[in-house]
Transmembrane protein (Rhizobium grahamii CCGE 502), 97 residues
Amino acid sequence: MIRTIAAIGAMVALVASCTAVSGSDPSEGYAPIPGSITYGGQPRTKLTKAPIGSSFPHTFTDQTGRTVEEIYIIQPDRTLLIAQRHYRPFFAWDRNQ
């Protein structure tokens, strides 16, 4: 019984530390990296026809040669927010990257 309680306590602490590590507000999105649409500032052209809250993907190769896919969300002021970033593996059998 004591071991079960200790194991549950350890799992709760582990999950709490994983969520606390991010340290940023999800509404802020990810910081742009070279190749991102928003790297160097927001695009000059406003997306006037796209509905607010809609999302779209952008795929590019970063400086290290990895393929990156970012998902952008259009904000109410027509700026772009990077909502997700995924790095694709170098090799098909390398799924853990």
Q: What stands out?
A: The first strand starts at residue 55 and ends at 61. Residues 2-21 form the longest helix (20 residues). The helical segments are 2-21.
